[in-house]
Amino acid sequence: MRRIVYIAYATMLLCAILILMGCPKKTLEPVTPEVSKTPPPVQTEMPAEQPAMKMDMAGESQGAGASSGKPSMEKDRTAFENTDIYFEFDSFELTPEARKALANKATFLNSHPRIKTRIEGNCDERGTEEYNLALGERRAKAVQDYLVFLGISADRISTVSYGEERPVDPGHNETAWAKNRRAHFGILGE
Amino acid sequence: MRRIFAIISVIFPMFCLSLHAQQIHIDIEASGFQKFKVAMPTYAGPGDLAGSVWATCARDLQLSGIFDLISPQSYVNPGPIGEVQQGSLKDFSLIGSDYVITSTVSRQGTAGIFKVQMVEVSTGQLIESATYTSGEQTMYQAVHAFMDHILLNKFGLSPIFSSKIACIKKDKAAKQLHVMWFDGTGGNTIHGGGNLVLSPAWSPDGKKIAFVSYWKNNPDLYLLDLASNNVRQVSAQKGINTSPAFDASGARIGLTLSIDGSPKIYLMDQDGSGRIKLTTGWATDTSPSFSIDGKNMVFCSSRAGNPQIFIMDLATKNVRRLTYEGKYNSEPCFSPRGDLVAFSYRAKNDKFCIATIKPDGSNFRVLPGTGLGDESPSFSPDGRLLAFAGGDGNIYITDLPGTMTVPVTSGGGFSEPAWSPLMK
Description:
The complex is a heterodimer of chains A (190) and B (424). Chain A has a domain at 76-115 and 123-190: CATH 3.30.1330.60. The longest helix of chain A is centred in the N-terminal third of the chain and has 21 residues, at 2-22. Chain A is built from 5 helices and 4 strands; from the N terminus they run ααβαβαβαβ. Chain A is 39% helix and 13% strand. Chain A has helices at 2-22, 74-82, 96-111, 129-149, 174-180, and strands at 85-86, 116-122, 157-163, 182-189. In chain A, strand 2 (116-122), helix 4 and strand 3 (157-163) form a beta-alpha-beta unit. Chain B has 424 residues and is mainly beta. Chain B has 2 domains: 2-157, Rossmann fold, CATH 3.40.50; 161-422, Neuraminidase (6 Propeller). Chain B has 4 helices and 30 strands. Chain B has helices at residues 2-7, 47-63, 89-94, 140-155; strands at 14-15, 36-39, 67-69, 99-108, 111-120, 126-135, 163-171, 174-181, 188-190, 197-202, 208-213, 220-225, 231-235, 241-246, 252-257, 264-269, 276-277, 285-290, 296-301, 308-313, 319-321, 329-334, 341-346, 352-357, 365-366, 375-379, 385-389, 395-399, 405-407, 414-422. In chain B, the strands form 7 sheets. A 6-stranded mixed beta sheet of chain B has the order 1-6-5-4-2-3, with helices on one face. Chain B starts with a helix and ends with a strand. At the A-B interface, helix 4 and strand 3 of A face strand 13 and strand 18 of B.
């Protein structure tokens, strides 16, 4: 029992330090949806490529680029990438557990200010493809908004929705689904 | 894709006899409509070729939605029969056939010849006698020409065998665009659009397919021109660019964008210009589908707390809720006849089914389907049939009364069927 109290004190202290150290400029800004004024799409005729659709794939990387880190930060980095944020069915609300995990993510990002991250929003296989793409987007955005609220600069965080396309567990049961309703973090480079 | 068109050798229907049958009037909408029973003994000709043409024809008869094939096990003479003999008609009337179809299939060089007869059993009247020639490898084309001729000229129905289904096919770790005739024949996977392609949508003229691709690591919208295979980027805004649907004119594309935060439905020109926002609010709005008269759009929205189907009057932007049954209704598809909306409905046992509802919110109906979890309905160009993705990863065709559920693919890995308009 006493240990729990110590842990609670430690957590509170950590949070306090976080707020003091980590958010010199953007202290507890209200969560405002980001309105980006993107220029109208560039019309690109894709270069020809036999024998299929004429979209030139050469040189394009399909995955997020990885970068090498110092050995000392490997552990933190692995934890950052391997700890997913989980959601309830058809929900993009952050649970208390999710907020806790995101506080850790913020700590990591604050201590590695040059790292940029990409949040991938995912859904379980239930529900339909198109709605899940939208739901995955909202999950990624909810996570991004919370990190911004915790003081991380929005330009360090990008998002992508994979809908139900990237399950970690291929099973068809609640255990698998619970693992698949997640926001996953990728490190884009420093 | 070009290959599909190149392979189609010209089909020559040669009508050998002057046909005296008139068009048969059927009211397939009538609640008591009974399908016509057809007997089809094995075809005469080289076993491999005759067998495969028979199998295609048997499946296409079922897919027509108006014929039922009587099991060959009950035939007095199971064939092969090349031509119907008047004396043998009672053998077919005994087993309850309305029609009997016989054929002789032969080879001529690299071509295949499909000589087919259809006789009305009760009168002995020859209602079709024709010869169709096609490439030996593409004999399904000859069967399609026969079926279209029967549907159009004998029963006054749309020649739907001149229509295709675009869908998504799993190809190792990738998902690719796949285009086939609606009965599953002549399938062709179109590579080159990246490793993850989703949500195909046909232009109303059947010449283009809009699709979502992660080619640039984001779900962006592209447009494939089927004649040239050229792909053009339509929309690559930050966030999602998903669930495309052409508007009634074919000039503009509806899609979901999340540029303002929550996913909303927008309408834009094919080059991404002239963008307007159709839906507003905090909710998730996605999956637009437009009525053929250009007046309405159905879409899926979470504004009622969970995904439900809504209809928007495009002139006034007034929105009305259509579905109240269940807690998860999505992927609406407007019938080309404008009288029905099909969608994916999560039933009480948590399995998805295909359901339909009228645009005024009445007549909610659940189709029997596969029972394996059915999603992504898409109407045939005449609005009589629906294609959907079954839980086993195959594409199925069903009729609106739900009397048949026929797979047109095998092996799984297929999803998101989109039924084309009629191809000329």
